[in-house]
Amino acid sequence: MAVDHAAAEVDHLAAERAAARFDVEAMKIAWAGSRHAVDVADRMARLVASDPVFRKDNRTMLSRKDLFKDTLRKAAHAWKRIVELRLTEEEASLLRQYVDQPGYVDLHWGMFVPAIKGQGTEEQQKKWLPLAYKFQIIGCYAQTELGHGSNVQGLETTATFDPMTDEFVIHSPTLTSSKWWPGGLGKASTHAVVYARLITEGKDYGIHGFIVQLRSLEDHSPLPGVTLGDIGGKFGSGAYNSMDNGVLRFDHVRIPRDQMLMRLSQVTREGKYVQSDVPKQLLYGTMVYVRQSIVADASKALSRAVCIAVRYSAIRKQFGSQDGGPETQVLNYRTQQSRLFPLLASAYAFRFVGDWLNWLYTDVTQKLEVKDYSTLQEAHACTAGLKAVTTSATADAIEECRKLCGGHGYLNSSGLPELFAVYVPACTYEGDNVVLLLQVARILMKTVSQLTSGKQPVGTMAYMGKVQHLMQSKCAVKTEAFEARALRMAVNCAQNIGQASNQEEGFYERSPDLLEAAVAHIQLIIVTKFIEKVHQDIPGHGVKEQLQNLCNVYALYTLHKHLGDFLATGSLTPKQGALANEQLGKLYAQVRPNAVALVDAFNYTDHYLGSVLGRYDGNVYPALYEEAWKDPLNETVVPEGYHEYLRPLLKQQLKLSRL
Ligand SMILES: CCCCCCCCCCCCCCCCCCCCCC(=O)SCCNC(=O)CCNC(=O)[C@H](O)C(C)(C)COP(=O)(O)OP(=O)(O)OC[C@H]1O[C@@H](n2cnc3c(N)ncnc32)[C@H](O)[C@@H]1OP(=O)(O)O
Ligand SMILES: Cc1cc2nc3c(=O)[nH]c(=O)nc-3n(C[C@H](O)[C@H](O)[C@H](O)COP(=O)(O)OP(=O)(O)OC[C@H]3O[C@@H](n4cnc5c(N)ncnc54)[C@H](O)[C@@H]3O)c2cc1C
C-alpha cells in the first residue's frame, strides 16, 4: 500500500510543536520585545503576504530589467499603502521589511534622510526633509568611489568654492574619483548627499557632505555635467540585483553654497572655512546609525535561515529504519544538532545584543544633542565591532543552513541561495569587516595604554579596569573566562606593539592578532548582553529556561570554537575546555524537543520566509514538486533549442551508429 509521506510529514511538525516545553506565544513576545511589537509585526507581515503585488516567489526567474521594474512597482505600491492606511513609522518600516526586496527606498530613508538630519543645519533640515518625507525628491548616499571605499579620507571628488558666484563646483578629476556603488543612484535617485573634498581659498579641508541634484524633476534626465548609470549585475539571481547601485561623474557641476551640509563646519559668503566645536567624526554619524541597524538585521537574516533549516530537519528523514520502522529525522543526529543549535542560539544572541545596541545608539544621540561627546568612541567601537562580528557569523551561518538542508537547500525554492546572495555584501558594505575590527583594535590598544596612567575604562571596556585580577586568575566563572581571554589578547598585542621601533609599524605587523583580539572583545559583549537579558524578569511558562539554555549554548559554543585562544592565554585549563564541550552536548539534548517551537517564536509568515523547505505546515514534498513545474524551462515539454542543437546531434549519432 502506498504511504502518503506528505501527510506524515505534516503530522510531524504538529508532534514537534506539541512536545515543546514552553509557551511559544510568550517567547514571541520575548523575541519581538513586547506584545505590541508582536501585534504590529503580525499585522504588517499579513498585509504584505496577502497582497499580490508583493509576490516574490518568481523573483529569481526575472530578468534584471523586469526585476528592477518590479522593485519600482513594489516601492510605489508600498508607499501608496503607507499613505492610504496612514501607517506609523514603525508600521511602515516593518512593511518594508516584509516586502523583502532591496531597493532605493532603503537608501533614501536609511541614509539620505539621516545624513541630512545628522549633518544639516536646522534651516537645511527645514528645507530638504519635507521634500524627502513626501518623496518629492529621492535621495541616495554617494560616498564610495571607484578607487576608494574603506579609506574615506582618500576620496577624490572635489567641491571647490567659487566666491564670485557663491557656489561650489563639484568635480570628478579622475576616473577613480567616479562615485561607485551607491544604492538607488543608478536609476532612481533625483538627489544625493555627495561626499567630496572641500577646497576654499586654495586649501583642501578634507571630506564634507553636499546635497546635489542629479536628475531633472520634470523628466528624470541627468542634469548638465552629470553622467550616471547602473554599475551592473551582482552576485546571485534575484538577490541584490533589485538595487540600482550606481556610478556617477561630475563635470564642474555648480551648486549653491547653502547645499553644503553645514552643521559640523561652514564656509562663509567670503569663502572662510569655519569649524564648529563638534568632533569632526560626526561626519561619519550616518554610518554609525546604519551599522547599528545592520546588527538588528543580522538576527533577522540568521533567524530566517535557521527557521528553514530547523523545520526541514524535523521533516527530513534518512537512515535508521529497522524492520520497516520509521527512519530517523535528521534533526535527531547529534552532528546536525551540533551544527544547527549554535546558529539558533546565535540568532537569539544577535537579537538581544541588537536591542542593546539600539539603546546605546539612542543614548549617544541624546547625549550629542546636549553636546556631551563622552560616549562617541564607545558607540563607534560597539557599532563597528558588532556589525563586523554579527554579519560575518550570519553570512557563514546561512551557508551552513544550506548545507544542513542537503541537496534541496541548493534549490532557489529553498529560499537559502537568495538569502545568502542578498546577505553576504553586509560583510563589506557600511565598512569592510576587517577594516571595522581594526578600528575596534585601535581603541582597545588606546585603552590598554591608558591603564597604566590610572584612567578607568568605562562602558563595554570597563572590565579592562580589573586588569590585576584578570591577568592572574584562573577563571571559574564563564564571563570571567571571556573577560580574561579578551583582556589578555589585547595586552599581548599591546606588549608586542610596544616592542616595535615605531607604533604604527608595530600595529601593522600585529594586525592579524589585533583582529582576533577585537573579535574576542566583541564576543564578550554579546555573551554579556545575553546573560543580562536572561537575568531580567521574563514572563511565560518555560521561556526564561529556554533562553538560559540558548545563552549557555552560545557561550559554550563560542568558547569551544575559540578554545585555542582560551588555552593560549591561560584563561581556561584543558580540563575546563573538555568539560565545557561535555556540557554543550547535554545542552543540545535539552534544545532538541523545543527546536521547532523556538523557530516558530520568530513568527515568520511563509511569504517572508520564501522557502518551500521552511513552510509552517511542513508540507515540503508536494510543495517542492509543484514548485519545480513553475520553472520557465518547464513551460514547454520539448525545450527551445532542441531543433537547433539537440536534434542535429542526435541525428548525427544515429548516422554514426549505422556506419
Ligand atoms: C515613514 C516612512 C517609512 C518608509 C519605510 C522605509 C524604511 C526603510 C528603512 C531602511 C533602513 C535600512 C538601512 C539601510 C540599508 C543598508 C543598505 C546598505 C547600504 C550600504 C551603504 C554603504 O556602504 S555607505 C559607505 C560606507 N563606507 C564605509 O563604511 C567606509 C568605512 N571607512 C570608515 O568609516 C573610515 O574611513 C575609517 C575606517 C573609520 C577611518 O577613518 P579616518 O581615516 O577618518 O579615521 P582614523 O581611523 O584615523 O580615526 C580617527 C579617529 O576617529 C574615530 N572614528 C572613526 N570613525 C568613527 C565613527 N564612525 N564615529 C566616531 N568616531 C570615529 C577613531 O576612533 C579615531 O579616534 P581617535 O582619534 O580618538 O583615536
Ligand atoms: C551591495 C553594496 C552596496 C553598497 N552601497 C553603498 C552606498 O549606498 N553608498 C556608498 O557610498 N557605498 C556603498 N557601498 C560601498 C561599500 O561601502 C564599500 O564597498 C565598502 O566600504 C568597502 O570598501 P572597498 O570596496 O573600498 O573595499 P576595499 O577597502 O578595497 O577592500 C578590499 C580588501 O582590502 C582589505 N583592506 C582595506 N583596507 C585595509 C586595511 N586598512 N587593513 C587591512 N585590510 C584592508 C579589506 O579587508 C578587503 O579584504 C556598497 C557596497 C556594496 C557591496
TrEMBL record:
Against Gene3D superfamilies, the record matches this protein to:
Acyl-CoA dehydrogenase/oxidase, N-terminal domain (1.10.540.10), Butyryl-CoA Dehydrogenase, subunit A, domain 2 (2.40.110.10), Butyryl-CoA Dehydrogenase, subunit A, domain 3 (1.20.140.10)
| Acyl-CoA oxidase C-alpha1 domain boundaries | 284-445
UniProt keyword annotations, A-Z: FAD, Fatty acid metabolism, Flavoprotein, Lipid metabolism, Oxidoreductase, Peroxisome
| GO CC field | peroxisome
Annotated FAD binding lies at: T144, G183
- An example of a Gene Ontology BP annotation on this entry? long-chain fatty acid metabolic process
Instruction: Read off the InterPro entries from this record.
Output: ACOX_C_alpha1 (IPR055060), Acyl-CoA_ox_N (IPR029320), Acyl-CoA_Oxase/DH_mid-dom_sf (IPR046373), Acyl-CoA_oxidase (IPR012258), Acyl-CoA_oxidase_C (IPR002655), AcylCo_DH-like_C (IPR036250), AcylCoA_DH/ox_N_sf (IPR037069), AcylCoA_DH/oxidase_NM_dom_sf (IPR009100)
Per UniProt, subcellular location reads as: Peroxisome
The active site lies at E430 (proton acceptor)
Name all Acyl-CoA oxidase C-terminal domain ranges.
479-651
Task: Give cofactor(s), names only.
Answer: FAD
Q: Which GO terms describe its molecular function?
A: acyl-CoA oxidase activity; FAD binding; fatty acid binding
- Domain (Acyl-coenzyme A oxidase N-terminal) spans 23-138
Please state which protein family the record places this protein in.
Belongs to the acyl-CoA oxidase family.
Protein name from the UniProt record: Acyl-coenzyme A oxidase
Species assigned in the record: Panicum virgatum
